[in-house]
Specification:
eight-stranded parallel barrel, alpha/beta, TIM Barrel, 17 helices, 376 residues, 2 domains, 14% strand, binds iron/sulfur cluster
Length: 376
C-alpha cells in the first residue's frame, strides 16, 4: 500500500464550467491523480452528493480504471441524510459500488453524523448495515464522518465501539473553537482508541489564504530562520498531520498546482516544530479577530435551500470583506448567476438545520444583502 498520511478529497475538483459543479474537468483530474500516485500516495475520498453526484463516477474514470485496484485506498460515504427506510442503505451502497467501478471500499463512513442524523441512523440500523458490509468483506474499515460537539461524539462512540475510524474537522483555527471543538473531539476519539481521518485542515481555504497581517508574521518566521517560505496551506495540513493517531489528512484539491504543493511537503512529512506551533497560535489570534462567518464551504446548506441561495460563496465574500475591507462585485455577479439572491431568503431555516457549523445563516445573509444587494 502507498502512503496514506495524505488523502485526495474529491469534493472540489477542477471544473470546466465554474458555475456547474457537475462539469468536472476529467483530463485535469487525471493529471492530478498521476502526480498523486507517482509521489507514492493512494488515498482517494469521495461521497455520494459531491459535485452534484458526479464525484464517484469521475473517480471511476480518472482513477479506478487507470490504476490497479490493490494500489488504491478508496473511501466512500453512505448518504444518511437521504436514507428514509432500512432498505435504502443497500440501494445506495450498490449504486456507489457501481458508480465507483469497484467491488469493495477500503473505508466506508456514515456521512456527516451528528445528534440529529444519529436518531434515524439508529432507527434504520445504519451501524448494523455497515458492520455487515465489513463481515462480508465489502468494506474493510467502517466509521463515520462527524460534525457535532464532543459530548455527542462520546455518546456515539460509547454506543458503537465497533467502528474503526472517525473523520473529524481538525484545523488550527478550530482547535480551541466552541463550534467544531476540534481538540475535544480529537481527545474523545483518542480515548476510544480510534484512528482519525482529518477533514477541513485548511478550513475551506481560510488557512490557505491568510490576510496581510497574518501573512506578514508567517513570512517573517521563515525568513528569520533563513528558510524558504512555504505555502500557508502547508502549515495547516502539517498541523493536523502532526497529531498522534491521525491516520490521514484530507485536502479537497482543485488544481494541479495545489496538488503539487501539498504532495511536495507530505511526501517526506515533517511534524510541526515548537516554533511553528507558536506561529499557528499567533495566526489564529489574528484570524479570530477578522473572520465574520465560520463557514467551511461544505455546501450542505445549499442542498436544502428552496431558493437555491449561494450561501457559502456569499459568506466567502462576507469574510473577504471582513478581512480585507474590499468588495468584489465581479465575484458577486458570478456567484449569484443561476442562484437566488440573499434578499430572496424566505427565512425557512432549513439551511441552519443542515449546517454542521451551526451558523446563524439567516442573520448573516441579511448582512450580506445589505452589503451587496442594496446597491447592486
Ligand atoms: S432560511 Fe433562507 S437561505 Fe436558509 S434554506 Fe430557507 S430560504 Fe434558503
Ligand atoms: S453555511 Fe454551514 S452548511 Fe453552508 S457551506 Fe457554510 S458551513 Fe456549510
Amino acid at each position: 500500500m502507498g502512503n496514506i498520511k495524505f488523502g485526495f478529497g474529491t469534493m472540489r475538483l477542477p471544473r470546466l464550467d465554474p458555475e456547474d459543479p457537475q462539469s468536472i474537468d476529467i483530463e485535469q483530474y487525471k493529471k492530478m491523480a498521476d502526480v498523486f500516485m507517482d509521489r507514492g500516495f493512494c488515498y482517494f475520498d469521495t461521497a455520494y452528493p459531491y459535485h452534484g453526484e458526479r464525484s464517484e463516477e469521475a473517480l471511476k474514470e480518472a482513477v479506478v480504471r487507470r490504476f490497479p485496484r490493490e494500489k488504491l485506498v478508496i473511501a466512500d460515504k453512505m448518504p444518511i441524510l437521504r436514507v428514509k427506510a432500512t432498505e435504502d442503505y443497500q440501494k445506495y451502497f450498490d449504486t456507489q459500488l457501481k458508480r465507483c467501478g469497484v467491488d469493495y471500499f477500503d473505508i466506508y463512513l456514515l456521512h456527516n453524523l451528528g445528534r440529529d442524523r444519529y436518531i434515524n441512523t439508529q432507527k434504520y440500523g445504519g451501524f448494523e448495515f455497515i458492520s455487515r458490509l465489513k463481515e462480508k468483506g465489502l468494506v474493510k474499515n467502517i466509521g463515520f464522518s462527524f460534525h457535532d460537539d464532543a459530548d455527542t461524539l462520546e455518546y456515539i462512540l460509547s454506543e458503537h465501539p465497533e467502528v474503526d475510524v472517525v473523520q473529524l474537522q481538525i484545523n488550527y483555527l478550530d482547535w480551541e473553537g466552541a463550534v467544531a471543538q476540534s481538540k475535544r473531539c480529537y481527545n474523545v476519539a483518542m480515548s476510544h482508541g480510534k484512528s482519525v481521518i482529518v477533514m477541513e485542515p485548511v478550513k475551506g481555504g481560510t488557512l490557505a489564504e491568510l490576510p496581510p497581517k497574518a501573512m506578514e508574521i508567517f513570512k517573517e518566521y521563515y525568513k528569520d530562520k533563513g528558510q524558504s517560505i512555504p505555502s500557508p496551506a502547508s502549515l495547516a495540513v502539517r498541523y493536523a498531520a502532526s497529531l498522534e493517531g491521525v491516520q490521514t489528512v484530507l485536502s479537497g484539491m482543485s488544481s494541479l498546482a495545489q496538488l503539487e504543493d501539498n504532495t511536495s511537503y507530505m511526501v517526506d512529512f515533517k511534524p510541526l516544530t515548537e516554533g511553528e506551533k507558536i506561529l499557528t497560535d499567533r495566526i489564529t489570534e489574528i484570524l479570530k479577530s477578522t473572520i465574520k462567518v465560520p463557514c467551511t464551504g461544505c455546501r450542505y446548506c445549499l442542498e436544502v435551500c428552496p431558493k437555491n441561495i449561494n450561501i457559502p460563496d456569499y459568506f466567502g465574500l462576507l469574510n473577504l470583506h471582513a478581512v480585507t475591507g474590499k468588495k468584489s462585485n465581479m465575484y458577486y455577479e458570478r456567484f449569484s448567476m443561476a442562484h437566488g439572491k440573499a434578499k430572496e431568503c424566505i427565512g425557512c431555516g432549513a439551511c441552519e438545520y443542515n449546517c454542521p457549523q451551526h451558523i446563524e445563516i439567516r442573520e448573516f445573509l441579511e448582512d450580506f444583502a445589505k452589503l451587496y444587494e442594496e446597491e447592486v
